[in-house]
Design brief:
The structure holds two protein chains of two kinds.
Chain A: H1 2-13, H2 15-54, E1 58-63, H3 76-83, E2 89-94, E3 97-103, E4 108-116, H4 124-133, E5 134-138, E6 152-156, H5 157-163, E7 170-176, E8 182-195, E9 203-207, H6 208-215, E10 225-229, H7 232-245, E11 253-258, E12 261-268, H8 272-281, E13 283-287, H9 289-294, E14 298-301, H10 302-308, E15 315-320, E16 329-341, E17 348-352, H11 353-362, H12 381-384, E18 390-391, H13 398-411, E19 417-422, H14 423-426, H15 428-466, H16 468-477, H17 481-516, H18 541-568, H19 571-575
Parallel strand pairs in A: 4-9, 6-8, 12-17, 14-16, 18-19
Antiparallel strand pairs in A: 1-10, 1-19, 2-10, 3-4, 3-7, 5-8, 6-9, 7-8, 11-12, 11-15, 13-16, 14-17, 15-16
Chain B: E1 2-15, E2 18-31, E3 35-39, H1 46-53, E4 61-66, E5 69-70, H2 76-86, E6 87-90, H3 102-112, H4 117-130, H5 146-158, E7 164-168, H6 176-193, E8 196-201, E9 212-217, E10 220-221
Parallel strand pairs in B: 3-8, 3-9, 6-7, 7-8
Antiparallel strand pairs in B: 1-2, 1-4, 4-5, 9-10
Helix pairs in contact in B: 3-4, 3-5, 4-5, 5-6
Classes of the chains: A alpha+beta, B alpha/beta.
Bound molecules: adenosine-5'-triphosphate and magnesium ion.
Chain lengths: 579, 228
């Protein structure tokens, strides 16, 4: 209490000097808080505004049969179950989009057609972010759900201008379906949006389910999944790992009837390594390996072939109940060989994987009938049989990620690949900007550090010189060294705290002021760092508290040495200073 | 009983390459409750001697015991405690703390002793009355005259009930009338509080207040005359 009173009054004694140093510190705090909030704002834009709409923080990507553009998975429920129930997830959306050629009123251009989920209820936060990123110039999001017009769409302002279309106009588009067929459609403009996000300036929004329909998805099928989560920097990798571990595939099995008898239709792998292994495991009694491996046809186990009275060259009829539709799927296939020994099972009908997946993905089979014998692959067959899908290994950075996709191209998987990735693999360039921003903050800290260092040391030196006799007096009267030191530290601490408070106010005022300036994001490459054409600051409690704490630590740390020197003065010498 | 015992005290000050002998073998005993004056010309070693007695400076050689404790054996913390508890200082230049008012200056040592605020305030109020500055209790030192400041300093020196009060030329910065009143106050306090007072002066006029006079010259104590 005594020290506090002394320190406080002594601070007021040298007003000019302390106000000067205090102002420098306040400006420092303001700069630090502004830089920090700016940096946080950019992170927020990157992670919550750009990433959210471009890649998500975590993505589950599908590529059917190695086709890079074929981002489809045939059993929506199956993969969404692996994503569901994660408390960290803020949003998980199907990424439905395609490039297409658009013809407006006398002008044509390429557009990116993007499906948006207009049916789900959004959190207040999501709505706010949506409105910040995509402001509606005309119309509203709900208009995408209109049924009175053909394919209602919302067009980005720049695109609408370029295509010369207004609300109510028709845009004709040509595009490729998921399966490579050329498609044409008429879109009705129901709204115009202003998209600040640089990645979103050429887009046309369409209801997601309509978009899926146009692209050839069936209702139970899903596109790749983009997931936005809380605290992405902290959680993205772990979440991706968890989802990945839930997506381990089993053997793909079609429980079917072959010529009226229960059978399990299985695929065998035909990549080079597995081909050779297959020849070592299974013995054929009729037919040839050549045909087995090259042609679409089935290998029957000897017992089943006998029961059905077929041999190589004969035909069999397969039928199986479908998972998502009522009528069974039927197919007539040629027997290419009969398996004499080493077959995967007595009723296992083998199909090479290319042919197998044709059936399997086009009409997902229902599971085994109640009471039917289930199949499980044993011994070498566990490796040789076609899996439900191919789960790609997790990678941690862009280089490994690229390499993984090069390997896919080489391997020519016949099944659908599932890849679980994070922004660290897919959006590393955007993330690099974080480093630049951190550099800005670090520079601010350094500048500040020196201001405070010089200011505090100088001020304290002057103060101590002026108050030498006072120091001698209080020491002679009986104040301990420690208390003398603490008195000066406390003075510095108080000054720093007052300055920080002033700096806080100043910083917030500066941010308010800077945020008032309007920029034109479209002629500026840094446009993506803006929100609605304004600089965006996001002060966080930890950032502000951290800044203040940092300044206090620097100031008090710097004051330590002169304060200790003052305390070490011999009282006799200190008293004799003027006398 | 002697409250101060000094034997063979020497003090050298290094001054560049040379050494200045400030005290050259001082023997001195001071009894409890004494009111003693040290007189000598400028540069004779008065301040040096008082500083060593007051434990703010240290002997080059010789023995110094204050209140029965040999001080050369103590560390800074213990010596600071002795200054706080056993000794009161009155300075030629008053040396009050400018940011504290009269009452706060007086209670300052008590707060250093961790006495309660109420107790310190009560004792300080008693002393401010004894030195006749009751009306000035809330004034800052800058608002007081030299004589009033020295009264505050006396009150501050006495507030802890020290064994010894040391005053280095307490009247040198005061006119003779004020100086006389200060010495009268000190003398009265010596009688009320039974505190040992040692003050230095080079002004023969103030000697009449002393009960015992020690003369110092060139770092040595001259033969003591009989007390006045
Ligand atoms: N810090 C110091 N460094 C060097 N020499 C010193 C120091 N302090 C005192 N002296 C010297 O020691 C001697 C005694 O000084 P001291 O201050 O004790 O004398 P004094 O009797 O108090 O004189 P005055 O009446 O002028 O106050 C003097 O010669 C002085 O120059
Ligand atoms: Mg002197």
């Amino acid at each position: 209490m005594l020290l506090l009173r002394l320190s406080l009054r002594n601070l007021l004694r040298q007003k000019r000097r302390n106000i000067l140093l205090g102002s420098a510190m306040a400006i420092g705090v303001a700069i630090l808080i502004t830089a920090n909030s700016f940096s946080h704002g950019i992170s927020d834009i990157m992670f919550n505004k750009i990433m959210r709409y471009v890649t998500g923080h975590v993505a589950v990507r599908f590529n059917e049969r190695g086709g890079v553009m074929r981002e489809i998975f045939r059993d929506r429920q199956r993969v969404w179950d692996a994503v569901k129930g994660e408390p960290l997830i803020e949003e998980a959306d199907e990424a439905i989009g395609t490039f297409s050629r658009a013809i407006g009123n006398g002008r044509s251009d390429n557009i990116m057609l993007i499906g948006v989920d207009t049916r789900k209820t959004l959190s207040a936060k999501a709505i706010k972010e949506l409105e910040e990123s995509f402001r509606m110039a005309e119309g509203k999001w709900e208009d995408l759900r209109r049924t009175d017009v053909e394919n209602p769409v919302i067009v980005a302002e720049e695109k609408a201008r370029y295509l010369n279309v207004k609300r109510g106009d028709i845009i004709r588009v040509r595009f490729r379906s998921m399966f490579g067929q050329d498609q044409a459609a008429r879109l009705t403009v129901v709204g115009i949006s202003r998209n600040d996000n640089i990645f979103m300036q050429g887009v046309v929004f369409l209801d997601r389910d309509r978009a899926k329909d146009l692209l050839g998805f069936r209702p139970w099928e899903t596109g790749s999944i983009n997931i936005t989560i809380k605290d992405p920097q902290k959680n993205a990798r772990a979440l991706a790992d968890r989802i990945h571990s839930r997506l381990r595939p089993g053997t793909a099995i079609i429980y079917a009837s072959a010529g009226g008898r229960p059978a399990q239709v299985l695929g065998f792998r035909t990549d080079d390594a597995n081909k050779e292994k297959l020849k070592g495991v299974m013995k054929l009694s009729s037919g040839s390996w050549d045909k087995v491996l090259r042609k679409d046809g089935v290998v029957l186990p000897a017992a089943l072939a006998r029961q059905l009275g077929v041999s190589a060259g004969g035909k069999i009829r397969l039928a199986y109940p479908r998972k998502f539709e009522t009528a069974p799927r039927e197919a007539v296939l040629t027997v290419t060989a009969v398996c004499a020994s080493g077959c995967p099972g007595p009723a296992a009908v083998l199909l090479n994987d290319a042919g197998f997946y044709d059936l399997y993905y086009e009409d997902m089979p229902a599971g085994p009938a109640a009471g039917a014998r289930t199949f499980s692959a044993e011994g070498p067959w566990a490796e040789l049989l076609a899996p439900e899908w191919v789960l790609l290994n997790r990678t941690n950075n862009t280089d490994d990620y690229k390499k993984k996709y090069q390997d896919i191209a080489k391997n020519k998987w016949k099944g659908t690949t599932i890849d679980v990735s994070t922004m660290y693999e897919t959006a590393s360039d955007i993330l690099k900007m974080e480093g630049v921003l951190n550099l800005i903050t670090v520079s601010a800290v350094l500048v500040l550090f020196f201001i405070i260092l010089l200011g505090v040391v100088n001020t304290l030196r002057m103060t101590i010189r002026e108050r030498t006799r006072e120091i001698g007096t209080v020491r002679a009267i009986g104040m301990q060294r420690r208390d003398v030191r603490n008195m000066f530290l406390l003075e510095t601490l108080l000054l720093t705290l007052f300055s920080s408070a002033a700096g806080l106010l100043l910083g917030f005022a500066v941010m308010k002021g800077l945020a008032l300036i309007t920029f034109h994001p479209h002629d500026n490459p840094l446009g993506m760092l803006l929100v609605n054409g304004h600089l965006y600051f996001l002060p966080t409690f930890s950032g502000v508290a951290g800044s203040v704490l940092l300044i206090v630590l620097i100031a008090v740390g710097t004051a330590w040495f002169p304060a200790r020197r003052a305390a070490q003065l011999s009282p006799a010498k200190a008293l004799g200073h003027f006398g | 009983m002697n409250i101060i015992e000094i034997k063979g005290l020497k003090k050298d000050y290094p001054l560049g390459a040379t050494i200045v002998p400030a005290l050259r073998g001082v023997d001195l005993e001071v009894g409890e409750g004494d009111f003693m004056s040290i007189i000598g010309p400028s540069g004779s070693g008065k301040t040096t001697l008082l500083n060593i007695i007051g434990c703010i400076d240290f002997a080059t050689s010789g023995l110094v015991s204050v209140g029965g404790r040999e001080i050369t054996a103590l560390n800074d913390r213990q010596i600071t405690d002795i200054r706080l508890n056993k000794i009161g200082f009155i300075f030629q230049t008053f040396n009050l703390i400018p940011v504290l008012d009269v009452l706060e200056n007086i209670e300052f040592p008590l707060l250093l002793m961790k006495r309660s605020a109420a107790e310190a305030r009560k004792r300080a109020e008693k002393l401010v009355e004894e030195v006749g500055l009751k009306e000035y209790a809330a004034h800052r030192p800058a608002e007081l005259s030299g004589g009033q400041r020295q009264r505050v300093a006396i009150a501050r020196a006495l507030v802890t009930n020290p064994d010894i009060v040391l005053a280095d030329e307490p009247t040198a910065n005061l006119d003779s009338v004020t100086g006389a009143s200060i010495l009268e106050l000190m003398r009265r306090m010596n009688e009320i509080e039974k505190t040992t007072f040692i003050f230095s002066t080079h002004d023969a006029n103030v000697l009449k207040y002393a009960r015992r006079i020690v003369k110092i010259k060139d770092g040595l104590i001259e033969k003591e005359p009989v007390a006045a």
